[in-house]
């Protein structure tokens, strides 16, 4: 399976419309890949909290429609990163009406999965103050037939989420992020940890650039089930292209069957 991670760099100068146009052009350039992944909250800005409410959209809004058209044109399964979602209707359990929602579109341009971020970053500010928490585990079937569990950025710090996903059959984790440079060492370490402890492939697409005064960490990566770094981006805008062997996880789990020894 051929995977492309679009590590997008942006600043505060672009509008949502300008950035969307730029991103869908990049997606269309990935024809020949099976899976394309974008970063978290790229249309609205991962740390641009003050603008989230004004920039929020539904999963049938202009950003997702544009992503669907690009996925169809490129003939790829597209993990479109995430958007600030305001679905309309009743607010969530905490009285908020925004979610950090990942979207996945198939090669016909249809929206086939959404995942609302479960763990909100901000320590009572930021996401917890503005957004509802997701509650559902979500997995998708990848073009090679493997199952991929979906999570987003800060979720990476909570290993129980990934254990639950492998119990549902996941052999791959797809993780869009807006992870800052200040903690990029944690990002690189935790990606490998999640891969090793779950004997899974980790496909993680981070953000580059600086926006809302936050320098982003880059270093998008694909990690094998033994913790091996199969590919890693630098700190700027970059498209990372990786060919993944189909039997990578099966070979790792059969060769070192540690998961069979779980007790708790």
UniProtKB/TrEMBL annotation:
One of its GO terms (molecular function) is acyltransferase activity. InterPro entries: C-N_Hydrolase, C-N_Hydrolase_sf, UPF0012_CS. Keywords: Acyltransferase, Lipoprotein, Transferase. Residues 1-246 form the CN hydrolase domain. PROSITE patterns: CN_HYDROLASE, UPF0012. It holds the Pfam family CN_hydrolase. The keyword Acyltransferase applies. The keyword Metal-binding does not apply. Belongs to the carbon-nitrogen hydrolase superfamily. NIT1/NIT2 family. This is Apolipoprotein acyltransferase. It comes from Luteipulveratus halotolerans.
